[in-house]
């Protein structure tokens, strides 16, 4: 792909040799015309020179003939003693000398050399030489007497010479004429060819040049247009997904706002943020993350209506504008489609990944709505959607705005409180399963604001984490908790751990371990007395670095616990690499542990996995005996919760620990001290008189009989007691008997479950039987004897089944036969 910079370079690169300008074209034309002109002049001058040379030669020949004739005339005048034209012998001698000079010119002169190439001329010149040699002595003795025979001899020599040279002159003149005619003809032919060819060729050349020029400018224009189009696209679109970017989005928003005002219709802005994208990007690499984003963009585009705009803000954030909205429900429909399409698995290469989306929606008001404000509001709503558990959408409300204001205010108050050290610490004891002793205390921050009253850490810790205020705050907690732990040690409470919550931001500080070492030293607290509770979130950004820090902490000697276990991404592969000592089951799983089979399964899974990794498990938020009993039954090692003790100030903790060092209630009494009869029967019916009647009927059978008038109580009894047989009414207000027994089957699969119903809902009965949830189905009114027998049979069945589990390692689920009493 072409970058903006590259495009700029391309545009400004001087590429003149490939793209001639008009000036170059003109220059080429001038050079071409000039060369044509010079060629023409050259031919003409050569022709002139040749003509000149030819003229000179003809002149020499005629001149020689003339000089021979002149000698002959002066000889005649001398011998005839011409009275008009008196001629002396000296004058004759002079004419003779002239002729001699001419002869020498023939012989030695450069100009005559071409003439001598003519054979006839050569012969004539030789004859001249011979004649001159013969004449010279004759001339010396010549008398002015026409009868001097020397006169006759000289004239006899001269006459043929004169004719010979004259004839030669004529011959050369003739041949020169022919030659010059030929030359003129040749020249004029060439000239006329050139006269036509030159303009034609130059015209053609010009045309070609012009055509090339045109083609190049057309190409240049085309490529410039394409590049400027590309530039405009790049400036307004996201390079990765090709969706409109922030700049174009702002344009479209303004347009939507104008249209809305004009058409008197509303429009919505939707802020889409992917859930769980960051870990994918971090663990699989950015190139992989980019592929996911491209696929998300593609899927979202498919959900858009023709007028909608989908833009990418950056990262995993997208904005959707829904113009001309008839009703807010239209936005809801799209939001649901976006959530639906995003939650489908993404197949990228050989990987299948799962992500979801959280959406915030804001609606334009009746008047003009500022586009930026709408985005901010949608963003706020999106954050709310994240808080609500992700994978959902939220509308922007005034309420949310108020919450934001409150957060800003909280941040200011928090800063003042940090500066004034306006916090205190409460400590919540933790108990051991075996002996009920206090094994540790969790330090919990308390902020009693002078005007705002008590502010929960659940409110201010997230704000402090966002603003970075958590670091000084967390250091204060560490210092105070270490100081108080030292005090407790000094008072003789040994073998207990001070557990301090450490936020991810603080933990990830590069000097965290060093600072902790200093704090421990200052407090003179042995590192073994301190435990740091960290959450799985510290592993998210850089797991290797986090593990390195944990190892450094272990080398320092402090203990490590994973807090809120099960709520994060709980990567088992990491868990086994972590140098930790304890796993804390989150309160959210404990809350419904006795009745929610999923929570129960998670808690049991955590305990079993931790034990395999030789880690201790502590359950937090234990609020009642049933939860405690359930967890205890499932081998949880330690407990913390209101059921045992609430968080308390240090002074109160000292009293509490001193009393609890010899534990009695609740741990001991609930645990080992309780004698559980072998056969326990649980009766569940919302009618008290039925419960009483059944109790009366069965009390002599030797069973421990537990009764509950609602499902919740029944679950609590099941958690606390070892129940083998359950007899439940079918028709109850909050939950049907078959539903209740189905849940019991998941929680306590080894129990034998019987329904006693006043009516027959065949479908629910057959379903329950088929799922293996019930052992027998009895109808009312019952037959006393038969009921007793069936209960006895159920206990016997349980015994057989549990012994089968012991031997074969699995549970016998009952025969599934429904018997109507
Ligand atoms: N409903 C119920 N609640 C119980 C029960 N037993 C204990 N709790 C509460 O559960 C929270 C346990 O702490 P957490 O899970 O670490 O959760 C803590 C922890 O994440 C954070 N936090 C508290 N103090 C600090 C601190 O010093 N530093 C950091 N970073 N976080 C802290 O604030 C959260 C809430 O603290 P708290 O309000 O003190 O709430 C405490 C405690 O008072 C119970 O049986 N039922």
UniProtKB/TrEMBL annotation:
Residues spanning the membrane: 21-40, 193-212
Q: Which InterPro entries match?
A: Biofilm_reg_signaling, CheY-like_superfamily, EAL_dom, EAL_sf, GGDEF_dom, Nucleotide_cyclase, Rev_trsase/Diguanyl_cyclase, Sig_transdc_resp-reg_receiver
Q: Which residues carry this modification: 4-aspartylphosphate?
A: 729
Q: Where is the EAL domain?
A: 407-661
Which domain of life does the protein's organism represent? Bacteria
Which Pfam family, any one, appears in the UniProt record? EAL
Q: Which residues form the GGDEF domain?
A: 265-398
Q: Where is the Response regulatory domain?
A: 680-795
Descriptive protein name: EAL domain-containing protein
Specify the signal sequence span. Answer: none
Instruction: Look up and give the organism this protein is from.
Output: Pseudomonas benzenivorans
Q: Does the keyword NAD apply?
A: no
* SMART domains hit by this protein: EAL, GGDEF, REC
């Amino acid at each position: 792909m072409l970058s903006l910079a590259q495009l700029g370079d391309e545009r400004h690169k001087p590429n003149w040799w490939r793209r001639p300008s008009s000036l170059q074209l003109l220059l080429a034309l001038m050079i071409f015309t000039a060369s044509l002109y010079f060629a023409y002049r050259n031919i003409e001058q050569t022709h002139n020179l040749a003509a000149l040379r030819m003229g000179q030669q003809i002149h020499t020949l005629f001149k020689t003939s003339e000089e021979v004739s002149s000698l002959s005339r002066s000889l005649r005048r001398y011998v005839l003693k011409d009275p008009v034209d008196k001629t002396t012998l000296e004058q004759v001698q002079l004419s003779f000398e002239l002729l001699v000079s001419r002869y020498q010119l023939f012989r030695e002169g450069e100009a005559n050399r071409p003439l001598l190439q003519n054979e006839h001329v050569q012969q004539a010149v030789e004859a001249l030489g011979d004649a001159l040699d013969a004449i010279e002595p004759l001339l010396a003795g010549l008398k002015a007497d026409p009868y001097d025979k020397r006169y006759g001899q000289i004239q006899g020599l001269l006459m043929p010479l004169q004719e010979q040279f004259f004839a030669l002159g004529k011959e050369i003149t003739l041949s020169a004429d022919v030659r010059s005619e030929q030359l003129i003809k040749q020249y004029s032919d060439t000239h006329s060819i050139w006269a036509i060819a030159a303009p034609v060729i130059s015209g053609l050349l010009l045309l070609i040049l012009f055509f090339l020029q045109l083609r190049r400018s057309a190409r240049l224009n085309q490529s410039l247009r394409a590049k400027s189009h590309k530039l405009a696209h790049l400036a307004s679109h996201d390079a990765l997904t090709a969706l409109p970017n922030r700049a174009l989005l702002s344009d479209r928003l303004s347009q939507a706002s104008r249209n809305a005002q004009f058409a008197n219709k509303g429009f919505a802005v939707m802020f889409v943020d992917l859930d769980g994208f960051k870990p994918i990007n971090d663990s699989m690499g950015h190139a992989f993350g980019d592929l996911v984003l491209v696929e998300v963009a593609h899927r979202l585009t498919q959900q858009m209506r023709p007028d909608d705009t989908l833009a990418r803000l950056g990262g995993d954030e997208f904005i959707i504008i829904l113009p001309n909205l008839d009703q807010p429900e239209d936005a809801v429909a799209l939001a649901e489609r976006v959530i639906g399409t995003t939650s489908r698995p993404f197949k990228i290469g050989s990987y299948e990944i799962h992500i979801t989306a959280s959406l915030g929606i804001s609606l334009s008001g009746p008047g003009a709505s500022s586009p930026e404000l709408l985005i901010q509001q949608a963003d706020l709503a999106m954050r709310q959607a994240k808080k609500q558990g992700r994978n959902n959408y939220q509308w922007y409300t005034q309420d949310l705005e108020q919450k934001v204001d409150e957060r800003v205010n909280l941040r200011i108050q928090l800063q003042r409180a940090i500066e004034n050290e306006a916090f205190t610490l409460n400590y919540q004891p933790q108990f051991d399963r075996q002996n009920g002793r206090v094994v540790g205390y969790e330090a919990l921050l308390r902020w009693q604001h002078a005007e705002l009253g008590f502010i929960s850490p659940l409110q201010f810790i997230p704000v402090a984490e966002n603003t970075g205020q958590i670091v000084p705050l967390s250091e204060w907690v560490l210092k105070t908790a270490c100081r108080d732990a030292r005090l407790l040690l000094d008072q003789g409470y040994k073998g207990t751990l001070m557990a301090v919550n450490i936020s991810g931001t603080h933990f990830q500080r590069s000097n965290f371990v060093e600072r902790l070492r200093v704090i421990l030293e200052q407090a003179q607290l042995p590192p073994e007395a301190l435990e740091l509770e960290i959450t799985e979130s510290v592993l998210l950004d850089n797991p290797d670095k986090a593990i390195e820090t944990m190892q450094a902490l272990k080398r320092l000697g402090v203990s490590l616990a994973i807090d809120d276990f099960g709520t994060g991404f709980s990567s088992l592969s990491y868990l086994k690499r972590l140098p930790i000592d304890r796993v804390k089951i989150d309160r959210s799983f404990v809350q419904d542990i006795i009745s929610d089979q999923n929570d129960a399964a998670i808690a049991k899974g955590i305990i079993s996995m931790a034990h395999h990794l030789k880690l201790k498990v502590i359950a937090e938020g234990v609020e009642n005996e049933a939860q405690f009993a359930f967890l205890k039954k499932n081998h949880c090692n330690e407990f913390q919760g209101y059921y045992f003790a609430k968080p308390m100030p240090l002074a109160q903790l000292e009293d509490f620990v001193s009393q609890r060092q010899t534990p009695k209630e609740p741990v001991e009494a609930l645990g080992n001290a309780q004698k559980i009869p072998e056969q326990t029967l649980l009766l569940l019916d919302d009618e008290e008189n039925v419960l009483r009647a059944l109790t009366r009927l069965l009390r002599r059978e030797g069973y421990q009989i537990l009764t509950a008038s609602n499902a919740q109580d029944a679950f609590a009894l099941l958690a606390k007691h070892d129940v083998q047989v359950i007899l439940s009414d079918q028709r109850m207000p909050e939950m049907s008997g078959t539903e209740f027994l189905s849940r019991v089957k998941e929680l306590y699969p080894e129990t034998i479950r019987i329904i006693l119903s006043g009516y027959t809902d065949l479908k629910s009965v057959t379903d329950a039987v088929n799922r293996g949830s019930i052992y027998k189905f009895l109808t009312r009114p019952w037959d006393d004897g038969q009921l007793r027998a069936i209960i006895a049979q159920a206990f016997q069945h349980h015994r057989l089944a549990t012994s089968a589990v012991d031997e074969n390692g699995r549970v016998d689920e009952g025969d599934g036969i429904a018997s109507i009493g």
